[in-house]
Structure formats: C-alpha cells, structure tokens
Amino acid sequence: MFAASAELMYIALRETEDSVNLGLLSSIQDGQRKGLGCLPYYLGLTPLDYVNFGQITKVNPDSWNQFNKRAFEQGALRQELLDMRRDEWIDLRDLLLANRTDDNICTIWLADIVAAGCLGGDHLWRDLGFASRTQLGYLMKINFRPLFMANNADMKWKKFFYKQLCEQEGGYVCRSPTCEQCAAYDDCFGPEI
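The structure assignment produced for this chain is given below.
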C-alpha cells in the first residue's frame, strides 16, 4: 500500500509537469552524496518524508551510505546541529511555506530542505550542494514565486530570507535601517565567488 501511494504521488507529479522539481531534488541529493553542502542526513526532511522522497525520486535514499561513509557521518552531526537550531529552521520554513507557489509535495519538501540549508555557513546554493546560484534562483522562481519577485535587487538568498524575517519583527535584528546604509551591503549584494 505504501509503495502504491508513492507511485500515485509520482504519477501526480508527472501529470502536473513537476519534473523540474524532481531534477532539483535529485541535484540536492547528488550534492549531499558527494559530500557537498551542509545538509543533514535526511536533508532537513522528517524520516518518513525522506523515505517518500526516495520512492518518488526513484532513488533508494539509503543506498548511498555504503558509498560515502563520510557524508553519512557528517549528515548525522548536521542533524544534531539542525535540532539545536530548530526554532530558527521553523521560522525559515514558515517564511518559505507562506510564500509557496503551490501545495505540491515537492514544494513543501523544498521548503524543509532550503530552511535546513540556511543554517549552513556558506552561500545557500553551496550549502544545498548545487553547482551554481542559478539552480537556486530557478528553485525559488518555480516554488516560492512571491519571494523570488520580492528579491528584485538580487540580494543573496540567505541574507534575503533573514531580512524578511527581520522585517516581520520575528526577533531577528537588522544591523541597519536600510540596506544602502548597512556596512555589510557588499556581502549581501556583491558577487558570489
């Protein structure tokens, strides 16, 4: 029954032409398998969602452990760090979910994964294991269009999310009344290298 429901979800994804999200999710998982990024073992998903993710993407989510023990060990440590910063993860996830383009399961999973990636210390696209920032921009455009449209100055995504949380008065403190006056302006809007 479980496999049948996953198969129905997989067909629904194809019928809604969501193969792009499947590609993005596969790219994130491939990056994790290669030890790239900062995502925990379950990518920021619940264990059950991670199993469903594996069935929908047609990848055995546990098969890579035998090929990359280091990534597995790092993933466990990163899960502990995510658990310690759970409130922050929830704030980020809620921001993404409030601005999602649709209720597709992949979009919901991507909110969980992107929120987990925000807890890393590098550029978000790198923390997600992407090859370029372009992939992250595409993910945002497809799945979180209101945020994509609001980021009209092309602010770095992680900085942009925290700025949004700051503007919502969610307890995150902005360093300056406007971005133009902020000493970290180049960090937020400069080129990503």
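Interim note for the steering committee: The two ends are 47 Å apart (CA to CA). The chain has one domain: 2-153.
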